[in-house]
């Protein structure tokens, strides 16, 4: 009996200790701790050929190993390499073909995040690419100059495949909606910055278990930028354009510079803004992008940092959702002599505003638990039927205390207002395809559905916290011709 009592007492004390540790452990803070001893890798521009009037790219998803500073090789996944993928680049008006071969041992897809294209080319969960098979989506690029990205979107496996390294950028060029005076030399003064957090186990491999007590997925204590640990960027021009992508699966970032200086926001998800904005902080949720300009002086160093993204949040947000975490992200090192950069113009591009009075439909979406409007994703259910060439207004709101986000396929939207009546910040003033939904808050957005109608193939809208997406926080919509009805059929299975 004494042994049982002692054993029980040990369990109670251990349990109390674990609870105390859980609630008192400090948040993650790498500020001042990063060595910045590796030059930032810049993803290569993807090779392409032009055949029969189409620009053709080739991608292969594959497993590999990468040196991530853990004293050995970490198992990773990538496109055309061991980790991440090349940057695809095409010009508005071009027809593109991307031959995607699945070199993994499981189904995958490739979704073109932010791209306007036919539903059958979108790479959603209804279009699995079987191991060894090749899928060749093709479409005409028809949207403004923008920083987009591509990543897997398989049913119930998106978080894991993105976390292991499957992601890359897709840049669209368009002289009509770009500004020539902005930095444009890829890899020199115009640099992709894909920021991802990782957790490692004792063997230097990715830990995919997720933080204890968190319900938003994996929150790592180490950052990789373009797959590089402890990265620095050699800057050779007075202005450097950083194309920021929050490529994490569940972590929020709040970008700033270490000395508090302002930097210039010029673009977001769907392209350049109407004018540049001076900001000192820039929050980005999972899947969001932003283009910023940083002014440098000869010989100086400054660190791109992520300050706590939810410093005023409640205990759960700060402790279990990363709201109080701080990171050093990337050191910018200016050369002793810098090439002059053109002055940033006072105006950038015209952004025609969509008129809510023209909306054919208004919809309301509430995100709670792993459901949207109390329903989980179902492949055989259409959640919205939209008529081609119409405008709609959606109110998307987080109905509880867990962070969520809203992402929609095919279209870009404009933010009309916050559900709490507060001001819309500059980073939400342009074209968007993803927006963070803070606990108990949301936005009203407007979008126009043009060009593509397909009653049998849906697009998706969902939370871009990827574990939430995998667990059912998605819905489907189809775009139909006037008077049309949905006609969902079998999944589009790419087996060879």
In short:
8% of the residues lie in helices and 39% in strands.
Largest sheet: 7 strands, mixed
Strands of the largest sheet, in order across it?
A: 14-13-12-16-21-18-19
Quaternary structure annotation: single chain
Secondary structure class reads mainly beta
> Compute the gyration radius: what is it?
23 Å
Number of helices: 4
Note the beta-strand portion. 35-45%
Unreliable spans are 12-24
Name the overall outline.
Answer: globular
Record field, number of beta strands: 33
Distance between the termini: 66 Å
Name the average pLDDT.
93
Helix coverage percent: under 10%
Care to describe what's here?
With 496 residues, the chain is mostly beta strands. It is 8% helix and 39% strand. The chain contains 4 helices and 33 strands. The chain has helices spanning 2-24, 158-163, 315-320, 466-470; strands at residues 38-39, 48-51, 54-66, 74-79, 88-91, 95-102, 111-113, 134-135, 138-140, 146-151, 168-173, 190-198, 222-225, 228-229, 231-237, 239-246, 253-257, 263-268, 271-279, 282-284, 289-295, 301-306, 327-339, 359-368, 371-372, 384-387, 390-398, 404-408, 413-418, 434-437, 442-449, 459-462, 474-480. The strands form 6 sheets. Strands 14-13-12-16-21-18-19 form a 7-stranded mixed sheet, with no helix packed on it. A 6-stranded mixed sheet has the order 1-15-23-22-17-20, with no helix packed on it. Strand 24 and strand 25 form a beta hairpin. The chain is globular, with a radius of gyration of 23 Å. It starts with a helix and ends in a 16-residue tail after the last strand. The model is unreliable at 12-24 (pLDDT under 50).
């Amino acid at each position: 009996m004494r042994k049982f009592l002692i054993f029980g007492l040990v369990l109670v004390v251990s349990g109390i200790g674990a609870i105390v540790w859980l609630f008192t452990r400090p948040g993650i803070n790498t500020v001042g701790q990063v060595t910045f001893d590796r030059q930032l890798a810049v993803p290569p521009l993807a090779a392409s050929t032009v055949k029969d009037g189409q620009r053709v790219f080739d991608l292969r998803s594959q497993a590999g190993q990468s040196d991530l500073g853990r004293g050995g090789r970490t198992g990773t996944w990538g496109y055309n390499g061991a980790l991440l993928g090349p940057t695809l680049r095409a010009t508005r008006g071009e027809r593109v073909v991307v031959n995607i071969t699945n070199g993994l041992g499981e189904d995958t897809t490739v979704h073109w995040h932010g791209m306007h294209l036919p539903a059958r080319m979108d790479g959603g969960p209804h279009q699995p690419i079987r191991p060894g098979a090749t899928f060749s989506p093709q479409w005409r690029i028809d949207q403004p100059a923008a920083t987009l990205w591509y990543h897997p979107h398989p049913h119930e496996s998106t978080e894991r495949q993105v976390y292991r390294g499957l992601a890359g950028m897709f840049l669209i060029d368009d002289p009509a909606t770009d500004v020539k005076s902005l930095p444009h030399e890829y890899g020199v003064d115009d640099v992709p910055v894909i920021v991802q957090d990782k957790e490692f186990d004792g063997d230097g491999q990715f830990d995919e278990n997720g933080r204890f007590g968190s319900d938003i997925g994996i929150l790592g204590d180490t950052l990789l930028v373009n797959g590089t640990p402890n990265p620095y960027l050699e800057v050779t021009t007075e202005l450097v354009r950083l194309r920021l992508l929050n490529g994490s699966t569940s972590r929020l970032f709040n970008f700033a510079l270490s000395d508090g200086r302002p930097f210039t926001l010029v673009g977001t998800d769907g392209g350049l803004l109407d004018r540049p904005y001076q900001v000192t902080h820039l929050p980005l949720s999972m899947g969001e992008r932003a283009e910023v300009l940083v002014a440098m002086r000869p010989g100086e160093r400054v660190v791109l940092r992520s300050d706590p993204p939810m410093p005023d949040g409640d205990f759960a947000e700060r402790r279990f959702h990363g709201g109080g975490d701080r990171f050093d992200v990337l050191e910018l090192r200016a050369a002793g002599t810098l090439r002059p950069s053109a002055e940033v113009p006072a105006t950038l591009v015209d952004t025609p505003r969509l008129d809510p009075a023209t909306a054919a439909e208004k919809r309301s979406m509430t995100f709670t638990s792993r459901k949207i409007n109390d329903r989980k994703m179902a492949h055989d259910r259409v959640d919205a039927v939209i008529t081609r060439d119409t405008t709609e207004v959606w109110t998307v709101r987080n109905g509880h205390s867990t962070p969520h986000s809203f992402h929609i396929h095919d279209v870009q939207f404009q933010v009309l207002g916050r559900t709490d009546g507060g001001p819309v910040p500059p980073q939400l003033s342009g074209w968007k395809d993803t927006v963070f939904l803070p606990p108990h808050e949301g936005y009203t957005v407007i979008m126009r559905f043009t060009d593509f109608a397909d009653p049998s193939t849906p697009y998706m809208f969902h939370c871009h916290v990827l574990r939430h997406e995998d667990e059912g926080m998605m819905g489907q919509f189809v775009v139909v011709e006037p008077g049309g009805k949905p006609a969902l059929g079998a999944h589009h299975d790419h087996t060879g």
